[in-house]
Amino acid sequence: MTLRGKTALVTGGSRGIGRGIALKLAESGAKVAVHYYQKEDQAKATLEQLRACGSDGFVVQADVSKPEEIRRIFARVKSEFGSLDIFVNNARPEVPTFYEGPMAVSLDMFDFAMDSQAKAFLVGVREAVPFMRAGGRIIALTYAPGGRFGSWQPWVAMGAAKAALEVLCRYFAVALAPQQITVNAVSPGWTDDSVLNTLPQPVQDTIRKWQQAGWTPMRRLGLPADIGNAVKLLCSAEANWITGQTLEVDGGASLVAGHLPLEVQQVPAAHAA
To answer: Could you give the count of Cα atoms lying within 13 Å of 10 in the half-sphere of its Cβ?
Structure first.
């Protein structure tokens, strides 16, 4: 599986899951544009890691909640690369900017979540496609449980925004199929070096223990590299018949029913190390 000769843009590519994706694409031979919002030092560090893989690229700063800045990203990509093969929509705002329950979330917070996710994706795809080559790949990072369930109350704005993002993937998949461009969503489970690490330490500790207890059958948190591997798979030529799908990359967490205790479900015990 090679991406040699391909070009890619990864929004939010300076750290965490975005960095994991950028590195996996680079390891397969793609040149990568690394977008960031505030962490220029981290974006440059990611670029250095890409170069250490034998690839290359550049960094570009923008606020993806603003359509004019998204257009500026793609103008730079076109100027640097000439064409685009892979667009990974990964950037997300920091948790405090949207984290309120449905009865308290402000309209500004709700709009910001939508603008940074669904609207950013809509604008981004429209900007990418005119210079995307046949066989291109568009991938959006989502969190599918946030759109299926309602119990994580402060996630309501982001849950609604990500659900809208997934719907857009399906509509774009149909619209772009005649150009042999596939559009899919990837939904990570709890992943180290991601939004998890921005939560209070007691919450992080509880989540880690919860995964190890069996709520994630593989008994561990995901890693950015795990998500990068899934994105790389969808970007391969072998994945040209997969479009309009949401791929759960979660170590089996989406298979575990939340309405029964694990001991009743008889989830297999973890093997000793």
So the answer is: 31
Q: How many domains is the chain built from?
A: 1
Q: How far apart are CA 108 and CA 188, in angstroms?
A: 27
Nearest to 17 by CA among 91, 113, 86: 91
Cβ atoms of residues 19 and 96 within 8 Å: no
**Within a domain: 152:** yes
Q: Is residue 265 part of a domain?
A: no
pLDDT per residue, tens digit, the chain (273 aa), is 799 999 999 999 999 999 999 999 999 999 999 999 999 999 999 999 999 999 999 999 999 999 999 999 999 999 999 999 999 999 998 888 999 999 999 999 999 999 999 999 999 999 999 999 999 999 999 999 999 999 999 999 999 999 999 999 999 999 999 999 999 999 999 999 888 888 888 988 999 998 888 999 999 999 999 999 999 999 999 999 999 999 999 999 999 988 888 889 888 877 655
| Token couple for 200 | 């209070």
Q: Show Cβ contacts of residue 135 under 8 Å, excluding neighbours closer than 6 positions.
A: 85, 180, 181, 237, 240
**Which structural domain, as residue segments, surrounds residue 58?**
7-200+222-257
* Residue 135 within a domain: yes
| CATH number, residue 42 | 3.40.50.720
The model's pTM: 0.95
Count of CB atoms situated within 10 Å of the CB of 19? 25
Q: Which residues of 117-140 are buried (b: 16+ CB within 10 A; e: fewer)?
A: bbbbbbbbbebbbeebeeebbbbb
- Residue 243 within a domain: yes
Distances (CA, A) of 78 to 33, 99, 234: 11, 35, 23
